[in-house]
Design the sequence.
């Protein structure tokens, strides 16, 4: 029997309603700087729950849900609304547009993909030369961005324009225990934050930041943290799961074999990933400890994200003002920043349960010891 | 004010990143007659205020043009030759033969020189000679150089300004003194006009290195809106058409994550009303301007970028069209004039 | 000062996990500071002196963190894979030793590669703590370690790991001691900041400077030397006096502070050198960009073999840096 400690504040349950919201969020297009479509969904969900909600100068949605009793920690929870994508930069006539990538997109993932452009989701394709016309060595060379165009077709030529943003046109799909969609980075975080806001425990003031421009330099989180002045911050994001076999891996791994994949970052199905160190942040050790202890006491699965590169909004948040103790926790996700990313539903629901349990456990004592 | 004369003065005044005093003093002299208050920031930006008429607390707009320029710095003195490093982004291939001024204990004329192949490492044969293998020769005896030059001394380009016919000026540091001149012209146009908002004209320091002037000035002044004025690639050899803004074609208005969409619309509508030719500059990444720092100062500031086309950016022979500068000045002057008690309510993220 | 330096360099303090070194420094300076505090990022801040009309609010920063490593994977046979914390170079590591914060010591091994394999990468390296199975390994993913190397006294020259920037820490501690024990009257209110997380991007100084809101900031940190065989191209030499920074990769020092430092050094007759560093930056960069901007500069200590386990400084440079700093704090400055 799984014996749960008794909870004063019930955790969110993940069901069809939550999945429908996640699907809606994933199918919205919100390239960095143009987050309006996701912002509208967030506002619609958050407004009825918040004591205060506003959109700041650069487009972050900031919302406060006050707790009861004293003393209370002001806890910032952040998830970024923006996603990587494209911007049309030059109109070449007949429906062809030159474009640039926004955020960290690997150009080798672009040829032969379908995209949506602008608020009206005008469809387009990134076409390439037919394989029949490709000569010799060309097949072994990467196709450079300069040679790619987005083609909206001659009749839709005037329905898009320079400056419009585009994203991959990938439908949200359940694959057994998994989810496949574009922009799981970080709609998983946004949807989780909405649920956590709905079920905010009353021992804290919950300061939600749905941030903009994370993918182009953690820019929304910087001003959000400055404005909210929290006592501590928890960032909800997605992190790569590179848990694929290495090319020379044996079919059956034995302990004497050194071909084990030692750089997986995280693994699908192993639970939410707690950050110790990435390129942008050294997580506050007190918060890392709290997450691990809470996961263990609630018998929730967790994994430590392999220290390494990458960064989350915590990178900007922890350096604001006189310093804000911060930690990130992510849903492991395969194939981030491509047309189709893949995550495990159970990792996501465990992330929500873990963060909720941590919020319930937060008290000023957590920060009363030195880092 | 005569634009050509003013601009020539600005580009022949020193002011490398981190040591903007000479250019700041020149601008202070030009701006003082037209503003109500002027001071330097703690790290050297120039802040000039033309006060508005709305009751306090009045909304404020900040328009920033960076005044610092690129150049070189002495890293070592070897037998009377100076080894150098870059201040700002430089293409070392343009340097050999370039005339320079070394700001030493007194100003020294010099030239950037490239050693002959046999005095360079073998692996550089036929290759570009990198900056750290070039020297500056000031023609003095080694003992004189030792006495006059110190590690850390700054070096400016010394290419004199050249008029290329009517309306076109070539020279170094037009990035971004062209925009500073536009601000001067804007202040002059505003003379006698009443503004509702406070207008801070700011010449920022250290844009070419850290954007530090803009970040700190925006933090200090806390404007409700911020506009950066800077230069953008003109047409010319090596610049593809889709990136180029032809000289004389008007201003470019930035669009992207670094720009507030409602502010972009306001500028676009204004440019159309004034019949000032403009072109959109899509910004998939960052704007490469002070707006990048201003947007995320403190709790965040709605930002806009206005660009003036310029050929041969970061060379000693940058080229601008004076008409474009005058257009940018007029657009800015009209923009700050039309700001009223209702304007801020338009700058929202309503979807 | 040798004993002080020895104690400081042999205490562990990788970026983000500065608790041990912070404790060591705190115990040393407690008797001399007017006020001590630790902020959210773990910076240790000691105030000395009070504001006066002629004086300034000054922030001095020497970072107490050092470069290190963090474990990323424990394989089935108990070998530990790791990544660097801060600007460590893989070629200086094979055969070296590390000490984890728990005290566990390990040696660094390297995978054998074909001769044309090129320079080692971190992915080629591993740590062996003597475990033979994953289950016996006392280290977990996310555990931090620092280089393990003894302090060497070569007379005037001293060698150790973490001279970057415990030598700056030692200079601040010695300066504070001299101010207090010499009952020196200074016009300024001075914040001695032993900053955290410098090696990963000047993070501690960023938040400390925001909190202190100084009128002037100086970093005390090491800089490279150009005086070793085929060394970096640089005018700075070991033993020729502390260096006054004009610029580095991240910052152009405030020209007024550079003049103040040069004039003071000449007035009191200490050796000094001018410094232009093309790679690397210091806490001064973060201080300069704080709030509405802070005039900032850096007093550098020439150091050979930076970011290896054997960093070398010259004690004469260190002593002169203390004299210069004391003289600077005793004079007023025009801004």
Sequence:
């Amino acid at each position: 029997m799984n014996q749960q400690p008794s909870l004063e504040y019930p955790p969110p349950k993940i069901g069809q309603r939550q999945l429908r919201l996640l699907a809606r969020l994933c199918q919205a297009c919100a390239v960095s700087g143009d987050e309006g479509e996701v912002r509208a969904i967030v506002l619609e969900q958050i407004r009825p729950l918040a004591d205060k909600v506003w959109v700041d100068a650069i487009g972050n949605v900031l919302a406060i849900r006050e707790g009861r009793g004293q003393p209370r920690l002001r806890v910032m929870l952040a998830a970024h609304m923006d996603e990587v994508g494209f911007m049309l930069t030059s109109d070449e006539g007949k429906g062809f547009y030159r474009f640039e990538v926004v955020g960290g997109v690997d150009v080798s993932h672009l040829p032969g993909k379908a995209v949506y452009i602008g608020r009206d989701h005008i469809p387009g394709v990134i076409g390439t030369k037919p394989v029949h016309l490709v000569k010799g060595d060309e097949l072994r060379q990467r196709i450079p961005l300069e040679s790619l165009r987005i083609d909206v077709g001659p009749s839709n030529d005037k329905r898009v324009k320079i400056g419009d943003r585009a994203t991959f046109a990938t439908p949200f799909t359940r694959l057994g225990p998994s989810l496949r969609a574009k922009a799981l980075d970080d709609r998983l975080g946004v949807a989780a934050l909405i649920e956590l806001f709905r079920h905010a425990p009353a021992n804290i003031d919950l300061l939600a930041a749905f941030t903009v421009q994370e993918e182009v330099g953690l820019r929304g989180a910087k001003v959000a943290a400055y404005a909210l002045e929290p006592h501590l911050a928890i960032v909800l994001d997605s992190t790569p799961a590179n848990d694929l076999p290495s090319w020379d891996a044996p079919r059956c791994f034995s302990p004497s074999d050194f071909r084990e994949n030692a750089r997986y970052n995280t693994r699908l199905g192993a639970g939410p990933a707690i950050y110790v160190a990435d390129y942008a942040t050294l997580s506050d050790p007190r918060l890392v400890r709290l997450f691990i202890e809470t996961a263990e006491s609630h018998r929730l699965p967790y994994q430590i994200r392999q220290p390494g590169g990458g960064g989350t909004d915590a990178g900007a948040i922890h350096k604001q003002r006189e310093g804000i103790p911060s930690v990130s926790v992510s849903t492991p996700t395969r194939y981030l920043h491509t047309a189709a990313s893949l995550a495990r539903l159970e990792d996501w629901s465990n992330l929500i349960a873990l963060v909720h349990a941590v919020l319930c456990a937060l008290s000023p004592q957590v920060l009363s010891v030195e880092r | 004010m005569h634009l050509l004369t003013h601009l020539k003065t600005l580009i022949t005044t020193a002011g490398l990143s981190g040591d903007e005093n000479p250019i700041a003093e020149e601008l202070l002299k030009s701006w003082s007659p037209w503003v109500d208050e002027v001071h330097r920031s703690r790290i050297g930006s120039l802040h000039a205020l033309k006060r508005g008429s709305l009751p306090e607390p009045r909304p404020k707009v900040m328009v920033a043009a960076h005044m610092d320029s690129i150049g070189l710095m002495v890293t070592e003195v070897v037998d009377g030759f100076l080894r150098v490093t870059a201040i700002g982004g430089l293409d070392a291939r343009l340097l050999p033969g370039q005339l320079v001024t070394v700001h030493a204990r007194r100003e020294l004329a010099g030239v950037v020189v490239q050693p002959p192949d046999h005095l360079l490492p073998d692996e550089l044969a036929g290759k570009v000679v990198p900056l750290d293998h070039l020297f500056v020769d000031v023609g003095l005896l080694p003992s004189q150089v030792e006495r006059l030059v110190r590690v850390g001394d700054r070096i400016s380009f010394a290419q004199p300004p050249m008029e290329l016919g009517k309306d076109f000026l070539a020279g170094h540091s037009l990035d971004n003194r062209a925009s500073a001149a536009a601000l001067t012209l804007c202040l002059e146009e505003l003379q006698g006009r009443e503004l509702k908002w406070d207008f801070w004209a700011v010449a920022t320091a250290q844009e070419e290195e850290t954007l530090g002037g803009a970040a700190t000035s925006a933090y200090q002044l806390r404007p409700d809106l911020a506009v950066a004025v800077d230069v953008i690639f003109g047409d010319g050899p090596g610049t593809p058409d889709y990136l180029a803004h032809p000289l004389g074609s008007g201003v470019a208005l930035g669009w992207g994550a670094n720009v507030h969409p409602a502010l972009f619309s306001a500028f676009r509508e204004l440019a159309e009303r004034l019949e000032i030719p403009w072109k959109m500059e899509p910004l998939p990444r960052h704007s490469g301007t002070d707006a990048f720092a201003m947007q995320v100062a403190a709790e965040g500031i709605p930002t806009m970028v206005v660009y003036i086309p310029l050929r041969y950016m970061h060379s000693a022979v940058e080229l601008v069209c004076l008409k474009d500068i005058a257009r940018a000045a007029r657009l800015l002057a009209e923009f700050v004039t039309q700001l009223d008690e209702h304007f801020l309510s338009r700058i929202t993220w309503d979807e | 000062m040798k004993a002080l330096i020895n104690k400081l360099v042999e205490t562990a303090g990788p970026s983000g996990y500065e608790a041990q070194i912070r404790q060591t420094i705190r115990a040393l300076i407690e008797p001399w500071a007017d006020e001590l505090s630790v902020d959210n990022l773990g910076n240790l801040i000691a105030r000395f002196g009070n504001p006066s009309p002629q004086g300034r609010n000054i922030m001095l920063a020497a970072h107490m963190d050092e470069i290190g490593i963090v474990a990323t994977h424990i394989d089935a046979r108990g070998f530990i894979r790791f990544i660097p914390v801060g600007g460590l170079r893989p070629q200086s590591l094979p055969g070296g030793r590390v000490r984890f914060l728990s005290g566990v010591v390990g040696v660094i091994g390297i995978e054998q590669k074909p001769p044309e394999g090129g320079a080692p990468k971190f992915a080629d390296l591993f740590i062996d703590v003597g475990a033979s199975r994953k289950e016996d390994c006392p280290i977990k993913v996310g555990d931090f370690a620092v280089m393990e190397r003894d302090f060497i006294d070569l007379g005037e020259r001293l060698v150790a790991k973490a001279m970057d920037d415990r030598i700056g820490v030692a200079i601040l501690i010695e300066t504070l001691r001299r101010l207090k024990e010499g009952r020196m009257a200074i016009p300024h209110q001075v914040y001695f900041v032993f900053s955290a997380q410098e090696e990963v991007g000047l993070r501690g100084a960023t938040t400390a400077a925001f909190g202190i809101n100084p009128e002037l900031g100086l970093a005390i940190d090491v800089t490279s030397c150009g005086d070793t065989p085929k060394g970096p191209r640089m005018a700075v030499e070991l033993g020729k006096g502390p260096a006054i920074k004009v610029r580095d990769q991240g910052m152009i020092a405030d020209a007024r502070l550079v003049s103040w430092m040069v004039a003071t050094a000449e007035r009191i007759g200490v050796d000094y050198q001018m410094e232009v560093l093309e790679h690397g930056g210091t806490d001064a960069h973060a201080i300069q960009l704080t709030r509405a901007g802070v005039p900032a500069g850096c007093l550098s200590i020439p150091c050979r073999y930076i970011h290896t386990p054997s960093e070398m400084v010259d004690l004469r440079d260190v002593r002169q840096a203390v004299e210069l700093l004391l003289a600077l704090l005793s004079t007023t400055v025009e801004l």
Notes: The radius of gyration of chain C is 20 Å. The CA atoms of residues 102 and 151 of chain C lie 21 Å apart. The interface with chain A takes residues 15-17, 19, 22, 38-43, 70-73, 75-77, 81, 83, 85, 123, 133, 140-142, 197, 200-201, 203-204, 206-208, 210-211 of chain C (CB under 8 Å).
